[in-house]
Write a structure and sequence with these properties.
The chain has 146 residues and is an alpha+beta fold. It has helices spanning 3-17, 46-51, 127-130, and strands at residues 28-33, 36-43, 63-73, 76-77, 86-91, 97-103, 111-112, 117-124. The strands form two sheets. The chain has a six-stranded mixed β-sheet. A two-stranded antiparallel sheet has the order 4-7. Strand 1 and strand 2 (36-43) form a beta hairpin. The chain starts with a helix and ends in a 16-residue tail after the last helix.
Length: 146
């Protein structure tokens, strides 16, 4: 085995041999949805966004994760290695929810924004519906303009 092939094999083996872990120590931001506060982890780097809420066993009802992108673009999410049923809110720069998508755990179904967005907020599935928060609702917080 050549040195390069051996190195590649070791990298692949080490990545697959270690169990993946949930990221729970990301910075947090408080977002406001009407009367309701959301304690959201902030996934701002490509690596943080790639892992997202994968491997999480549970999440408190008032918690979520907000994915922050450098510029507005069409965003699509899927749930491979995500154990919790989630709802994704695709959010404009000013905090307006463009559309919502319920997502089943451990699937590769694609759920996309209806138009370019800068943020995606994932919450436990049903959270938005229980609070009567729908498309067009405006979230508030330090991330949003206006």
């Amino acid at each position: 085995m050549t040195r390069i092939a051996l190195s590649l094999w070791l990298v692949c083996f080490s990545l697959s041999a270690w169990p993946q872990q949930a990221q729970t120590q990301l910075p947090r931001v408080t977002l406001q949805a009407g009367l309701f506060q959301i304690d959201a982890q902030v996934a701002a780097t490509p690596a943080q966004r790639e892992i997202g809420l994968m491997f999480r066993q549970d999440m408190a009802p008032h918690e979520g994760m907000v994915f922050v992108f450098e510029q507005a673009s069409k965003q699509c999410f899927w749930m491979k290695n995500t154990l919790l049923p989630l709802t994704a809110a695709f959010v404009d720069e000013d905090g307006t929810i463009v559309n919502l998508a319920d997502m089943k755990p451990q699937t590769t179904d694609s759920h996309c924004s209806d138009k370019p967005v800068r943020f995606v907020l994932e919450m436990n599935q049903g959270w938005f519906a229980k609070k009567n928060i729908k498309k067009g609702f405006k979230l508030k917080g330090p991330l949003f303009k206006g």
